[in-house]
Structures are given as C-alpha cells and as structure tokens.
Design a protein that fits this description.
It is built from ten helices and no strands. The longest helix has 28 residues.
C-alpha cells in the first residue's frame, strides 16, 4: 500500500518524535507547564488552518464519500480536538479569546503556509497528503505513550494521551490512511513522488513544531529580538 511506502520513508523522522524531550516529557509527566502552554496556543492556531485544509478538501472532492470524509474530519477537529485545547487552556488560565488571538510563531506560519499552498494548488490527494502526517503521527505518539506505565492517568497530561490514543482518533487516522491509499492507487509514479514529498515535508515540519514548543521560540535561532511577541 502507498501508506506503507510513506511510513518507511518517514520512519527516521517519526522515530525522532518519540525521542524528543517535549514528547517524552508528556509521557513521563515531567514537561514544564509553560512549555505545554506555549504548545497549546500554537497548536490551537495550527488547528484553525488544519480545518481550512479539510474545507478545501470538501470543495475538491470528486465523490460524495470523500466529501463526507473531509466534512466529518472538519467537524471532529472543530468540536473535539479543539475542545480539548480549550479545556486545557482553561486549566492553564488562558481565556478562549487569548487562545484565539495568540501570536503565531515562525514555525507555525511556515508549516501552515506550506500546507495551505499545497492543498490549494492540488487536488483531493494533495489535500490528504498535507494533513496525513499530523493525524497519523499524533495517533502513533498517543498509542506509544499510552503503553507507558501510568502515563494515561497523569493528572494533567493523561487527557492529552488518551485523546490521541483513543479508538475514535485511531479510527480517524486509519480512515485517512485508507483514503490516501485509494486516491494514490493507479496514479503514475511522478504523482506518487509528489504526494510523498508533501508527506515528508509535513513530517519534518511536525518535528520542528515539537522543537519550537520545547524551546518556546517565536522565531528560529537568531538575535534575541526575533523572539519577541510582535
């Protein structure tokens, strides 16, 4: 299957997710809350554009089945995944208004700009390729962390792990993989290479997102004035 090929190419990158101190800190409960707060603000903004990609997918869909899938993913993200962020924000003392008006980091802007650009330029297969790494890798991370003794029961990070390791989220990831396989089936090799490139680029952006959150960096490495919230 095409997703097996994608996984094989991305596995060295994804293995680094599981070794990243941000992800490991969620798993063992040691992650500093300020780092998680910064992550939740940035990830909430990411999910807004993630939803826009699904909306684009509904418009580009060539069948009612695919249109329905994109619409369901849009609804699920808006009502479930973003609600988890809003609940965490409340526990962290962040209002809904503050969450929605947080300043985007350079990494976030680069990631979502790339994702939206490729989704707008491409067809329904490109749309799936743009969002697959995020959904699939979060499920992989959630399932991996859920295997750690007591991780899912942690008083703060347990809900995050349970969300991404849940049967419901696992089903979403599997359905997205199935759609990617159906859309890639019988495509010429040059088009498969293009989809693979999008998947690998977004996988790299996922790693940069973990790194950005852990270091709480608004911009990349450089003079201190780059990291002011303006």
């Amino acid at each position: 299957m095409f997703t097996d090929r994608l996984y094989d190419r991305a596995k060295p990158i994804w293995d680094e997710y599981l070794e990243h101190p941000f992800v490991k800190g969620i798993g063992d409960g040691s992650l500093d809350l300020e780092k998680f707060k910064f992550f939740m603000e940035q990830d909430y903004l990411y999910l807004v554009d993630y939803c826009r990609v699904f909306a684009l997918g509904s418009g580009k869909a060539q069948s009612l089945e695919t249109m329905t899938f994109f619409a369901e993913m849009l609804h699920s993200t808006l009502t479930e995944e973003m609600e988890l962020h809003r609940k965490y924000a409340g526990r962290l003392g962040i209002s809904k208004e503050e969450l929605e008006h947080a300043k985007p980091s350079a990494t976030l802007l680069a990631y979502t700009s790339y994702m939206l650009n490729k989704a707008q330029q491409g067809a329904e297969a490109e749309v799936v390729a743009c969002v697959l790494a995020c959904t699939w890798s979060y499920n992989v991370i959630g399932l991996e962390l859920a295997e750690k003794n007591g991780a899912s029961e942690h008083e703060f990070y347990g809900d995050w792990i349970k969300m991404y390791a849940s049967d419901e989220f696992t089903e979403l990831a599997e359905n997205m993989k199935d759609l990617m396989n159906r859309l890639a089936d019988n495509k010429p090799e040059r088009e498969k290479v293009h989809l693979e490139e999008i998947f690998l680029h977004t996988s790299k952006f996922e790693y940069l997102f973990w790194e950005m959150a852990y270091k709480q960096k608004m911009w990349m490495e450089g003079p201190h004035f780059l990291n002011t919230k303006v």
